[in-house]
Write a structure and sequence with these properties.
The chain is mainly α. The protein is built from five helices and no strands. The chain has a domain of 62 residues: 434 Repressor (Amino-terminal Domain) (Orthogonal Bundle). The longest helix is centred in the middle third of the chain and has 12 residues.
Length: 93
Amino acid sequence: MSTQTIDAWVPTNTFGTRLVLLRRELGLNVKEAAARTGIHYATWSTWENGRKPSDMAGVVERIAEEFGVDRNWLMWGVPTPGAPEGAPLQPTD
């Protein structure tokens, strides 16, 4: 028997990870989230698995508008300065 200690895995802060967090927070599966934004579910799934959209800015804009998520958080993982605390899911103006 091994006495090796296993540290908990912490996902990296990537666009794909933020998509998963957003989708789960909203209680949506991949097909539902993708359909709401007009994106094919297989494409959304590839993004969650690490690929990046060729039009990252356009995709971020589309998702942010549909779900009311902070654009900077979705794009870079950092909320917009002055945005309410707790919020990747705070509505944006």
